[in-house]
Design goal:
Elements (H helix, E strand, L loop, with lengths): L1 H34 L4 E6 L2 E6 L6 E6 L4 E5 L4 E5 L2 E5 L3 H6 L3 E5 L8 E11 L9 E13 L5 E8 L5 H7 E7 L6 E8 L17 E6 L11 E13 L5 E11 L5 E14 L2 E4 L5 E4 L17 E6 L10 E2 L2 E6 L6 E4 L11 E7 L2 E6 L4 E2 L1 H5 L3 E5 L7 E2 L1 E9 L2 E8 L5 H4 L1 E6 L2
Parallel strand pairs: 19-22, 20-25
Antiparallel strand pairs: 1-2, 3-4, 4-5, 5-6, 7-8, 8-9, 9-10, 11-12, 12-13, 14-15, 15-16, 16-17, 16-18, 19-23, 21-30, 23-24, 24-29, 26-27, 26-30, 28-29
């Protein structure tokens, strides 16, 4: 009996110790949870679930706009957009934000006197760089307008500007055509007008004076023979935002030719984008075509006002060359200093320009006549190794040579270089002739 009482007392002591230990353990766990500010939990109050974040430091400020008080926060998963009491969260921005910190701007986009927030986010990558492996990113833009809904919640109304946003308004409002001039295959001609308007072309030259017209240089082979346009298309639309908050759009213009499979990315249709009558669209009277730098060219509609010619005679008799083949010319002349007829000693000049008897400059080309016994190299002409350069060293420097032909006249070798169009003498100014150089 005594042994049984002792066993019962021992069992009771074990139970008491277990209860005390269990309560102490739970209390320590609860205290640990309370002190850990990185833990989030849900509490239910009157059938409403409220998410409470104990660690405010987890939301990092990505970027802010001091002028109008817009801010973007990021917790590693969700981006929160704020302006005072206005707030909206985005869970689908993680990909973009992890690649590149968003750029934000504020501007009144719809003309109501209230600034909207514009957020520029990476949407993807585009591989069309000139250098192998060069990657350029494309972007999507969110226009966020502070807005109070029917329940009184202060949030943001969102307009999304994506790669496809431009397509419907562009195609439904604008006639856009690309052609190649009949008079000179060098020129690609892009014309835009209202969709209801018809664009007319000159039957002989292919030039149009309708609408808004722009020009770019077609692709050519190594012999300086320009390819024939077969078709063109509009590629990706890429958005950007200028420092003053203006949204711009650049639509790729792509060109294909009959002779080659290569696609030429020739330039961009450029315009501004805004909110017009409650929808995102292109801003009227801002649409232009801008060729890439390597394909910029002059305007073939700007031609010589009248026919003209200026002849330079070589007074030198000594050529200093034993070879009778003229395969190297690299000489510059200033036409503004020359009259209709001039005589110059060529023997002070370098290269085989010394073997040329006279040079005739006209509004449409250059005719070089060799001295007796000398011959222009047909091999050089056939491989396209010739050029006539104007505005050398300037932003508008251009090679205006279009074709080169070598013939024989009265027993003398004659080389004729034709320009891509006609030019006034004052427009040419300094002119550099290169042949086999």
């Amino acid at each position: 009996m005594k042994k049984t009482a002792i066993a019962i007392i021992a069992l009771l002591l074990v139970v008491v110790l277990f209860v005390v230990s269990f309560n102490y353990r739970n209390k320590r766990i609860e205290q640990s949870i309370t002190n850990d500010s990185s833990v989030t939990y849900n509490t239910t109050v009157q059938n409403t679930t409220k998410t409470v974040t104990l660690n405010e430091k987890k939301n990092k400020l990505l970027v802010k706009d001091d002028r109008n008080g817009f801010e973007l926060y990021y917790d590693g998963e969700i981006v929160t957009v704020k302006q005072g009491d206005y707030q909206r969260q985005y869970m689908n921005w993680k990909f973009s934000v992890d690649l590149e910190v968003p750029q934000i701007y504020s501007k009144d986009c719809d003309g109501d006197g209230q600034a909207e927030l514009m957020v520029k986010l990476v949407s993807g990558t585009l591989d069309y760089g000139d250098n192998e492996g060069e990657i350029k990113r494309t972007y999507v833009i969110y226009i966020l307008k502070p807005y109070q809904d029917a329940d009184g919640n202060k949030t943001f109304k969102a307009y999304t500007v994506t790669d496809d946003t431009w397509k419907t308004p562009f195609e439904s409002a604008i006639r856009c055509e690309m052609t190649q001039l009949k008079s000179c295959n060098k020129y690609l001609q892009l014309s835009m007008d209202d969709l209801k308007e018809k664009i007319e072309y000159d039957e002989k030259t292919g030039i149009t004076y309708d609408g808004h017209t722009y020009y770019a240089k077609a692709l050519s082979n190594n012999k300086k023979e320009y390819y024939t346009l077969s078709r063109w298309s509009k590629g990706v639309g890429n958005y950007n935002i200028t420092d003053d908050g203006t949204i711009t759009l650049d639509i790729q213009v792509l060109v294909n030719y009959e002779e080659v499979k290569d696609t030429q990315y020739v330039g961009n249709i450029h315009c501004e984008v805004g909110i017009v009558k409650g929808r995102v669209t292109m801003v009227p009277n801002t649409i232009v075509f801008i060729p890439l730098d390597e394909f910029k060219t002059n305007d073939p509609r700007e031609i010589a006002e009248k026919n003209w010619e200026s002849v330079i005679t070589n007074k030198s008799t000594n050529t200093n060359f034993e070879s009778k083949d003229i395969d190297w010319i690299d000489t510059e002349f200033n036409l503004s200093n020359l009259g209709d007829e001039s005589s110059i000693y060529f023997d002070a000049m370098s290269t085989k320009i010394k073997c040329v008897d006279n040079i005739k400059f006209t509004q449409s080309g250059i005719v070089l006549t060799a001295k007796e016994g000398y011959t222009f190299s047909k091999h050089i002409a056939d491989r396209g190794d010739f050029s006539v350069i104007i505005n050398k060293g300037k932003d508008n420097e251009e090679d205006i040579a279009y074709s080169c032909n070598i013939s024989n006249k009265d027993g003398l070798s004659v080389m004729t270089i034709r320009y891509d169009k006609t030019y006034d003498k004052k427009t040419l100014g300094n002119i550099l002739i290169k042949f086999g150089a």
